[in-house]
Structure prediction request, 236 residues.
Amino acid sequence: MDSNKINLSEKLATFSDYFAPRTVARLNEYDVMVVKVKGEFVWHKHDETDDFFLVLKGKLDIQLRERTVSLGPGEMFIVPKGVEHRPVAEEEVHLLLIEPTGTPNTGDAKTAAPRKLA
Amino acid sequence: MDSNKINLSEKLATFSDYFAPRTVARLNEYDVMVVKVKGEFVWHKHDETDDFFLVLKGKLDIQLRERTVSLGPGEMFIVPKGVEHRPVAEEEVHLLLIEPTGTPNTGDAKTAAPRKLA
Prediction:
């Protein structure tokens, strides 16, 4: 994290593990993160916050209980707070995420990935 | 604004005026906006919030008093709260902006562009 410009592709090139978001910047009390995703995440929800997804590369399905939102590059979706969802990607996908600092990625601090810097 | 996915290019294709952000989604108490910029904006600052810029297309210079941050597609910068800045684009540039709802784009409600939906 630095006070200069942030090149998202360069940040994504610094790691290869999935479902392990890297914080690249802070916006007030929010973390701006990049993440690589492949496969199925767990069903979860965030009772305290909406959940911002922007696809940078690849294709992401955000499964909701009633429907699936399919996103390609340049497409975004905000999962409203309290809504159960599961991100699924058949092939590797690169995402920009924005969440309040400290939000557990699984919706539960006990199972959440540790928040890392890129 | 809708509860479905948001295609940023499609939203940008719905208008052509510069420095007039369109809100495409809400993230908690924040507006997620797209904007087209060409030319020089005014020097301004936001005393209450950081200011998020992500370049989607084109090239943006964010002039600060001490230096200039030059951004291309896939590059972002967060202007810290209270820091004077001026966005400048020689050619048309498309941006994603995120700010607390109601933040005046000029830093001053008297001169701010009205906030529109896309």
